[in-house]
Amino acid sequence: MKPITLFGILTLASFQAHLFAADAANQPTGDKDAISSNAKAFVAAFEQGNAKAIAAFWTEDGDYMDLTGRLLQGRAAIENAFQDFFTENKGTKLRIDVISVRFVTPDTAIEDGITSLTFADGSPPNQARYTNVHIKKNGQWFLQSVREASYTPPGNYEQLRALEWAVGEWVDQGNGPEIDHVRFEWSEDGNFLVSTQDVTMKQTLVSRATEWIAWDSAARQVLSWSFVTDGSFGENLWSNEGGQWIIKTNATLPNGKKLTATNIITREGPDTITWQSKDRTLDGKALPDVEKITMKRVASETGTVNQD
Fold it and tell me: Is the domain 17-150 a CATH 3.10.450.50 member?
């Protein structure tokens, strides 16, 4: 157990001058340089385990509130906490990602960012968000206040919410000998939708495919990767057009041949969807379209539809 998180206090640690952009057009460049210089000195003191030097970065009455809500008031309390930390956590490394530094007055700067500690014992890094207030006194910049908050890594849940209606189980309503059964669910971390697609005939599993649906932050598009029990695999690009999901598929079959298709999912109602496949080719040669399939949401054991 680490006795102190020390995230927010690593406020000074961006060494890139451009990260210290002043909101005030007349903010002296020397102030930004001074904060940057303090950062280098702070890191040096931390790596030396010098709690007294670290506490000196605060004003006499400065304070620091950590993730647990513990408030350290004044340099003496901050120094003692750092000394305890260094005693129990030798060799700890630190990293900071500064989001912004803005000067609200010529003598006051507010910094926001994300901090991380990596411990010598190999335990996972700890991360936190922080907000720090720097003030200038007698020509020197000090920390007046530091506040930490829980950090949640950015995820893709919000980008995939447009597909959340599909979560649950769906079954083919056709009359053919083969029955399609599809289940959508969120991955444990909420960053992916995972689809399992079964084809059965006379209650015997004929084929199973697993598909991981993700958000491509570079292309700003939903995409997915699919894997079939026969060894086929594919990559699919998704787009939402007027209530329909258009899925451009490129797949490689077990024999090495290339299959392309445009698959269309249409939401006909809260518990009904249709699926069809058009513009299909096999190694560049046209294939017939697949007729539209209607699928219904499966009711849960309680009698209600299986829908989050």
Answer: yes
* Residue range 5-60, pLDDT digits in tens: 443 333 333 333 333 433 434 556 788 888 778 877 887 888 889 999 999 999 99
Q: Where are the domains of the chain?
A: 17-150, 157-297
SS (H, E, C) the chain: CCCCCCCCCCCCCCCCHHHHCCCCCCCCHHHHHHHHHHHHHHHHHHHHCCHHHHHCCEEEEEEEECCCCCEEECHHHHHHHHHHHHHHCCCCEEEEEEEEEEEEECCEEEEEEEEEEECCCCCCCEEEEEEEEEEEECCEEEEEEEEEEECCCCCCHHHHHHHHHHCEEEEECCCCCEEEEEEEEECCCCCCEEEEEEEEECCEEEEEEEEEEEEECCCCEEEEEEEECCCCEEEEEEEEECCEEEEEEEEECCCCCEEEEEEEEEEEECCEEEEEEEEEEECCEECCCEEEEEEEECECCCCCECCC
Q: What pLDDT, on the 0 to 100 scale, is given for residue 100? A: 83
Q: For residue range 97-147, what is the model confidence (pLDDT) as tens digits?
A: 778 888 999 999 988 888 888 899 888 888 899 898 999 999 999 999 999
Q: Per this entry, what is the length of the chain?
A: 308
Using the predicted structure, report yes or no on whether residue 295 has a pLDDT greater than 60: yes
Fold exhibited by the domain 157-297: Lipocalin (2.40.128)
Instruction: Give tens-digit pLDDT for 110-123.
Output: 888 888 888 998 88
